């Protein structure tokens, strides 16, 4: 293997060079000292954002050029030199860093500081990453996490020189923050893209073409299928790729499609301060963790949002303080599994403290140990501003240990409202869903919560027509709605999603018309029981966060009470 062959090999994405081959190649030419430099290059390459072709080959070329002046005439005895080279090489290995050194260095990734300025990729100039006053129009679909993601994406683009517009017609860039939880949510985006197609066609005749991007879960789930199906889409960015938006848009400006749908094990955007999309808002969402490890049979979230990782407590408290200083009156702590929060960023908090689950509940994944848990975070957040109300969503029933319930009861500014997703009232269906609890354990938890937090408001999620659900299973779900009497509910017909465990192992055997009938029955029963539950608050005086008026010209105010209960015959609505 000659020097040129080595360069070609290390610049290949499938680089698999044998160290001995490289050593002999250099040693035979009196270039043995280059071996150490090459090792350093290969090590550095891992930490660079450039690909192998852009980084390793460039650095290797410089290294080899530096040594190319060595002549074979300086080594009159090749065998002796080779022997000396081997000894020198061995001594360097013996005195160099050990494997444990690199493992320790990589074990605790540090959050990026917002003040850091990263070098652009080799194919772009720094000024090409700037927005240059181009106007961005953002549309948000789906859950509260997507609302927060929109604010994160806008914060990143704003720092790059983009402007925000609420006028679709004047936008240079249109970004749709998407949901993929059900087929209907994705169909909404396909329909929207069809509407935008005419707008983009008209803009093709102008000097500034329109760029369209798909962000979030749908981009993560479908990936290149979107680019192949809709040629009008210029940019794809998954939930963990928003930092890359300036680069993706810069590539799109050249007329190419650009995508980044890589999921991360540590991205939490802890150093990105979300920009509130509504200046007059009284409340805000604060993301505290991302991803989910529960792997429920029906759920696509672990495949579109990745594994669980939590923000450092310090960065969350800093954001809450800034929101308090801005005059906001309420924050909602967000996460796909918000009460599974675990800050392991500080070594001193990583001791093997046992993890307490709700009584009668189990976890599908290996239970983690150590770290600062949700009870600690909730305690600290509630102390930032006693006048600021605190909510959190969406939790999993398994992660409600007594310390969390006690804290909610004790702190006046923590809202007495808990979202407790049941999904089904049948233990058989719950087992098929891999929820980690039975109906009996769930009902026991409901009773325990109501005993611990008198007057608590409960809400829940239910799925109608899951794989294999029988009429008897459905009747049990109806009976659970009547037994618990939720104040609020989110009910949906089951929608099979690719990649999920149900897609690979179960059969979507409940006819669509049966799903819809069962869903209507659940909605009817829920409304009946919610009315009974909410009527108990009629005549009570409640503290209300006023958010505005119900409609133009109306004198009726709307807002949320502390426990988020609908109040009939009063001026407060949910």
Automatic annotation (TrEMBL):
<dbReference type="Pfam" id="PF04055">
    <property type="entry name" value="Radical_SAM"/>
</dbReference>
<dbReference type="InterPro" id="IPR005839">
    <property type="entry name" value="Methylthiotransferase"/>
</dbReference>
<dbReference type="InterPro" id="IPR013848">
    <property type="entry name" value="Methylthiotransferase_N"/>
</dbReference>
<keyword id="KW-0479">Metal-binding</keyword>
<dbReference type="InterPro" id="IPR020612">
    <property type="entry name" value="Methylthiotransferase_CS"/>
</dbReference>
<keyword id="KW-0004">4Fe-4S</keyword>
<dbReference type="InterPro" id="IPR006638">
    <property type="entry name" value="Elp3/MiaA/NifB-like_rSAM"/>
</dbReference>
<dbReference type="GO" id="GO:0035597">
    <property type="term" value="F:tRNA-2-methylthio-N(6)-dimethylallyladenosine(37) synthase activity"/>
</dbReference>
<dbReference type="GO" id="GO:0005739">
    <property type="term" value="C:mitochondrion"/>
</dbReference>
<keyword id="KW-0949">S-adenosyl-L-methionine</keyword>
<dbReference type="InterPro" id="IPR006463">
    <property type="entry name" value="MiaB_methiolase"/>
</dbReference>
<comment type="similarity">
    <text>Belongs to the methylthiotransferase family. MiaB subfamily.</text>
</comment>
<dbReference type="InterPro" id="IPR007197">
    <property type="entry name" value="rSAM"/>
</dbReference>
<dbReference type="InterPro" id="IPR038135">
    <property type="entry name" value="Methylthiotransferase_N_sf"/>
</dbReference>
<dbReference type="GO" id="GO:0005829">
    <property type="term" value="C:cytosol"/>
</dbReference>
<dbReference type="GO" id="GO:0051246">
    <property type="term" value="P:regulation of protein metabolic process"/>
</dbReference>
<feature type="domain" description="MTTase N-terminal">
    <location>
        <begin position="134"/>
        <end position="254"/>
    </location>
</feature>
<dbReference type="InterPro" id="IPR058240">
    <property type="entry name" value="rSAM_sf"/>
</dbReference>
<dbReference type="Pfam" id="PF00919">
    <property type="entry name" value="UPF0004"/>
</dbReference>
<keyword id="KW-0408">Iron</keyword>
<protein>
    <recommendedName>
        <fullName>Mitochondrial tRNA methylthiotransferase CDK5RAP1</fullName>
        <ecNumber>2.8.4.3</ecNumber>
    </recommendedName>
</protein>
<dbReference type="InterPro" id="IPR023404">
    <property type="entry name" value="rSAM_horseshoe"/>
</dbReference>
<feature type="domain" description="Radical SAM core">
    <location>
        <begin position="278"/>
        <end position="532"/>
    </location>
</feature>
<dbReference type="GO" id="GO:0051539">
    <property type="term" value="F:4 iron, 4 sulfur cluster binding"/>
</dbReference>
<keyword id="KW-0411">Iron-sulfur</keyword>
<dbReference type="GO" id="GO:0046872">
    <property type="term" value="F:metal ion binding"/>
</dbReference>
């Amino acid at each position: 293997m000659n020097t040129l062959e080595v360069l070609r090999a290390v610049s290949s994405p499938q680089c698999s060079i044998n160290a001995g081959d490289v050593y002999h190649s250099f040693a035979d030419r009196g270039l043995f000292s280059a071996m150490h430099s090459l090792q350093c290059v290969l090590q550095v390459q891992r930490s660079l954002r450039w690909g192998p072709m852009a980084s390793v080959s460039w650095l290797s070329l410089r290294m080899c050029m530096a040594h190319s002046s060595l002549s074979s005439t300086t080594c009159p005895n090749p065998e002796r030199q080779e022997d000396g080279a081997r000894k020198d090489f061995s001594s360097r290995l013996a005195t160099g860093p050990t494997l444990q050194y690199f493992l320790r260095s990589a074990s605790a990734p540090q959050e990026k500081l917002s003040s850091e300025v990263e070098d652009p990729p080799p194919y772009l100039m720094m000024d090409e990453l700037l927005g240059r006053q181009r106007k961005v129009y953002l549309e948000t679909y789906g859950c509260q996490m997507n609302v927060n993601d929109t604010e994160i994406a806008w914060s990143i683009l704003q720092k790059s020189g983009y402007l925000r517009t609420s006028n679709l017609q004047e936008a240079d860039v249109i970004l749709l923050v998407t949901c993929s939880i059900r087929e209907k949510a994705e169909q909404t985006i396909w329909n929207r893209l069809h509407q935008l197609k005419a707008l983009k066609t008209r803009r093709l005749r102008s000097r500034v073409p329109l760029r369209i991007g798909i962000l979030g879960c749908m981009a993560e789930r479908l990936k290149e299928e979107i680019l192949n199906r809709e040629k009008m889409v210029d940019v794809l960015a998954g939930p963990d790729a928003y930092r890359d938006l300036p680069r993706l848009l810069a590539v799109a400006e050249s007329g190419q499609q650009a995508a980044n749908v890589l999921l991360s094990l540590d991205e939490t955007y802890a150093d990105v301060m979300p920009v509130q999309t509504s200046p007059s808002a009284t409340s805000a969402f604060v993301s505290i963790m991302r991803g989910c490890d529960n792997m429920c049979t029906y759920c696509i979230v672990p495949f579109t949002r990745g594994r669980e990782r939590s923000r450092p407590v310090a960065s969350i408290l800093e954001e809450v303080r800034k929101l308090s200083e801005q005059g906001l009156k309420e924050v909602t702590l967000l996460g796909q599994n918000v009460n599974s929060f675990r800050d392991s960023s500080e070594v001193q908090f990583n001791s093997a403290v046992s993890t307490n689950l709700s009584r009668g509940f189990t976890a599908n994944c290996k239970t983690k140990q150590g770290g600062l848990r949700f009870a600690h975070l909730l305690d600290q957040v509630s102390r930032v501003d006693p006048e600021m109300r605190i909510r959190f969503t969406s939790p999993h029933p398994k992660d409600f240990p007594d310390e969390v319930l006690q804290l909610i009861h004790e702190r006046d500014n923590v809202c007495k409202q808990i979202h407790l997703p049941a999904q089904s009232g049948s233990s058989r269906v719950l087992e098929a869903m891999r929820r980690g609890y039975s109906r009996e354990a769930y009902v026991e938890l409901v009773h325990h919560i109501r005993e611990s937090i008198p007057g608590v408001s409960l809400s829940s999620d239910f799925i109608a027509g899951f794989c294999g659900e029988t009429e008897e299973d459905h009747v049990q779900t109806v009976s659970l709605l009547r037994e618990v009497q939720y104040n609020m509910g989110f009910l949906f017909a089951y929608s099979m999603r690719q990649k999920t465990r149900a897609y690979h192992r179960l059969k979507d055997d409940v006819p669509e018309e049966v799903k819809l009938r069962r869903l209507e029955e659940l909605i009817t029963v829920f409304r009946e029981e919610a009315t009974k539950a909410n009527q108990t608050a009629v005549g009570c005086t409640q503290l209300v966060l006023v958010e505005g008026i119900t409609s133009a010209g109306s004198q009726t105010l709307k807002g949320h009470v502390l426990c988020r209960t609908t109040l009939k015959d009063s001026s407060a609505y949910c």
